[in-house]
Each structure stands twice: as C-alpha cells, then as structure tokens.
Design a protein that fits this description.
By secondary structure, the protein is mainly beta. The chain has one domain. The protein has one helix spanning 2-20, and strands at 44-49, 52-54, 59-68, 73-76, 81-84, 90-92, 95-99, 106-110, 121-122, 128-132, 134-137, 152-155, 159-163, 166-168, 175-178, 182-186, 189-191, 201-203, 208-212, 215-217, 224-226, 238-242, 245-247, 260-264, 269-273, 276-278, 282-286, 296-298, 301-303, 308-310, 318-320, 339-340, 351-353, 369-372. The strands form 4 sheets. The chain has a 20-stranded parallel beta sheet that branches.
Amino acid sequence: MKIRYIQTLISAFLIVLSISSCQKDEVTTFTKIVIPSSGPITAGNISGFLKGTLLTGQTYIITADITVKKGDTLASQPGAIVIVKNNSQINIQGVLQLIGSKEQPVSFNSDTNQPGTWGGFQCDTAQAIIIKWTHVDNTGGPDASGSARGTLKVKNAINVDIEDSWFTNGQDDLIRIEKGATITLLRNTISSSGSTDGEAFNLKTGVKGIVAYNVIFSQAGSAVKLETSSRIPFPQTEVEVYNNTIVSNGWRRGSAEPGRAVSVGVNAIGHIYNNIIVNNYHGIELFSDGDLVKTTYGNNLFYATRDTYTDLVDSTQKINIRDNFYPASGVGVAQPSDLVSKKIGNYDPLFINFNGLVAAPNGFPNTYNFRLQNGSPAFGTGFAKYDQDLGAYTTNGKGNQH
C-alpha cells in the first residue's frame, strides 16, 4: 500500500508539471525530475502486464508485448536501457513516465538496431504521457495485417508532454495525437522516419498546445500536420508551431501527396512563426478548408540549396522547390516578415554542417549539425512573442539542447 501511495503521488506531481509546461513562460524551464526506485522492475526479460520503475544503468529485454493497465504507471530513471525483441509493442492504458537526463538518456531500441523492427508505444487510451530525454529508435514494425505501426499514438483528452527526446527511423507517423489532448512537444529531434508515408507530428480532432524548438529531418510525409475533423468540426485543433528547424521532408510520397513543412486544414487553426524551412517538397500549405480566419503566420525563413529536384515517384517531373515554399495548391502567401530565398545563397540560414541534401531514404543517418553559424539571417529576425531568433537553436539558450 505504501508503494502504491508513493507512486500515486509521483504520478499526480508529474501530470501537474506537464500541464504547467504548456504555458509560454515555462517553455524554457529545465526542471530536474528524479524518479525514485519505488516498485523497481528487475533487469532482464520482461513481457505481459507491467508496472513500476526501470532503473538507472539496468538493461531490460522485452520479449513479447507489454501492457500497462489503467491506474498503473511505467516509469524510468535516467540511463535505463530497453531492448525490444520479436516485433513487440508497448500498450499504455495507464501512465507512461520516461524521464532521462542530458547526461543519461533513457533508450528504447530493437535488438537488431534496424528500421521498422518493433511496435512502438500504442497509447490510445493512456491517462498521461511524459517523455523527457529519451531515445526511441527503429519503431514501426508491421502489425498483424502487415501495415507499419506508428511510433506513439494517443486518442484521448490527456496531457502529452514530450521534450528533449530523439525519434529515429520509424515507418509511419512518429507522433499522432487526437481527440482533445493537450500537447507540449519541445526541443525534440526527429530523423529519417516514414518508409513511404507518415508525418512527424500528426495532430487532429481538437488537439491544443505547442510544437516548438524541434528539429525535423527527412520525414516521408509532413513535419507538422494540423486537422480537426470533417465530421466533428468542434472543438478545433489549435496549435502554435514556432522555432522549429524543418529540413528535407516530404519527398518519399511523390507528387500524388507531397509532404509539407507545416500544413493546416480541415477546420484547424495554426499559429506558425519563426521556423526555418529548407528543401521541403512543400513549405507552409494552408488548405481552404482550414480555419484561415484565425490562422496566423509569419517570420518564417524559406531556403533551397538547389533550384529543382526530380520527383522520387515520377522521374519525369522536375520540382521547383522555391515555387513550393507556399505551394499553389494551398491558399497561403508569403508574408512581409518572411525571409524568402529567391536564389541559392539568398537567405541561406548557414547551418554549421549540412551538405544540401534534398531527399534521403528511410533510416538515413543524420549526422548534420543544424545549429547556426555567426552571421545567419535567422538571428534577430524572429517574432518577439515567441523568440528573437528563427529555428530550433537560438542565442538565448531556450532552444533545442541536442
């Protein structure tokens, strides 16, 4: 009883913390959270129903599907290592609290370390999700029908707080959140995911919150997709999307469904500012069925390292990347506060290390450094409500910590 009481107090504290982190003045507060060893989980093979705490420095091997029941919590201390075998998945009906640290991140990976080899976190009916300083790699293993699974899925009006974490080499949607959840998605790095489809952040049906200071590289579909529902238009999805660095996304689906840096449609509302958008198939696409009266945007930097690129699905098509910063298929237009490159070299954000790659396959190793060199036009040109600079890495230290 005492252990359960302690766990309940911990859960309540972290849920309150996740709610408070949605407020602007709390965005850059890096709070050190210590998860005690109450209900410690013994290292080694695990499967079936699970609750308790994964311990620092211990390695756990998931041999079959895991389920965390409603009312239970699966927590972690910094430095816990989880290896997943047999294409298993983790089902969260209760609370998930993965709390690593910059020095000791938590790690979830498959035993083969290959893209698409385990089932990810299926959290449709979860009670709360808190993930900080955690690696989640090589998800998207096929379900019983052979379809790729998303990395983390939520369909519940809960708090979802994902910060300072890495998600790589998934096969479909990385993070798909629906049905009125409140989100805080901050300072994460998402790389080389979606085999032939899948968004990085797919946010639908009444989701509200912020997506900020993330690096999103080489996603098959869109980096950030906002929609409500054609059947249930209210409550509306409304998300602030600011200070993200969004590079080389949207190519693997081809012209039939190009991916976007940010898209707003189906009665959703977006507030899109201070993003660096480079080499994406489409930049910002505002669809006519979105709530464009309430949607606001500006102070975004658009750049292309080359003028055209061949469509990956139809090799007869040459895509003019600059024409698609605000594509003709949408109704968005360049704003006076935007920095829109007209030619190579004009408004180059000056990444520290980037070779200009436009499109890459699923699982492509991301070794680039998207921090900015001195003299970048991204410095000092942000919408001050959000940040003085553009992109995920800012001079005031509020941005991405990777």
